[in-house]
Specification:
The chain is α+β, with helices and mostly antiparallel strands. It contains five helices and 13 strands. The chain is 23% helix and 28% strand.
Length: 260
Amino acid sequence: MKSSGLLHTSVPQYWRTAGDLDLAVTTSGDVPAMDVTRAVRAIGRVLRRHHLDAATRVRVTAPTEADQATVVQANIRCQGIATRVQVTGPGGFAVTFAAERLDRQLARLTTTQPRDWPDPARPPLAAVTEPRPIVRRKRYVLMKCSANEATAVMDAMDYDAYLFVDEESGADTVVYRGDPLGARRAAHRTAVSLLAPPRAVTALPHLVDSASAPVLDDDKAAIMLCDNGLPFVFYTDPGSGRGRLLYRRYDGDLTLVTPR
């Protein structure tokens, strides 16, 4: 098992467990071979515990800096529902954290158990920083659904915010899990402040639509996010009038989600 950054970044490495699970592990960066073995064993145990043989894809991304964490993401379909978990941690611990989170996620999807919030295992990526670049742009045909359905997708995919089209109003809308330290929005007001702290901490998700989101260009949205230490910013594009969701990645850079 080589740990060449080039090999791991460009070519997925597929690993079969003794039970012949369809489990593929892809690495990026200088990931130790032992971490790949841990991922196969730990995720494999979770799949067997839940009696799943669906295709499972795991990505392990090594840090580029000494003070950064390893990122592990696992994707699977459970009962026909696309499911994902993503966590960080030091070295091999990140793989263990991901397996434990996936175990809890799969258990929750088979019951009526709500998603834990606030989530001590994964605090929001909210910190005041220098302006960071938008390094990835994702364009999607947005799902048209109810707020409840959007929340279910957000929780199944382990997102903290999810951009969709509200089936009642037809507006681009974000459902999100708020953070009690100040990133929560007063979403039901006509003018939404991206900086206002919450009046009370609650486990319920919040909604905000593009009619009440500020009109910003991408550069100004990025400055607002970084200057104010926000995990994400939802805003209206001045050209198209559509909603956009800008959020911070684990490496500190930014990703932009826009409607196709």
